[in-house]
Design a protein that fits this description.
By secondary structure, the protein is mostly beta strands. The chain has strands spanning 37-38, 42-47, 53-60, 62-67, 72-77. The strands form two sheets. Strands 1-3-2 form a three-stranded mixed beta sheet, with no helix packed on it. It has a two-stranded antiparallel ribbon with strand order 4-5. A hairpin with a 5-residue loop joins strand 2 and strand 3.
């Protein structure tokens, strides 16, 4: 069973079950998360609808980060990621 972005699996507002009207469609396609790690840059291209491509970052060392209160955006090297138990 593939990953889907449709809301067909959700229940109605009354709590009743919805009956599927059709199979999964191409436009409802979802993909697995990239789970980007810290390391030397490694990118993969993913084909999308219309023959276009998106870029998946498998590993990165730097990123563009904003500091809202100081109104500053800088390209910054990432040293470490902090563990957050709510993100499991």
């Amino acid at each position: 069973m593939g990953i889907s972005r449709s809301g067909d699996y959700k229940r109605r507002a009354t709590g009743g079950k919805k009956i599927p009207l059709h199979k999964k469609r191409k436009h409802q396609l979802g993909r697995p998360a990239a789970n980007t790690k810290i390391g030397p840059k490694r990118l993969r291209e993913v084909r999308t609808r219309g023959g276009h491509t998106k870029v998946r970052a498998l590993r990165l060392e730097s990123g563009n980060f904003s500091w809202g209160s100081e109104v500053v955006t800088r390209k910054t090297r990432v040293l470490d990621a902090v563990y957050n138990s709510s993100n499991n």
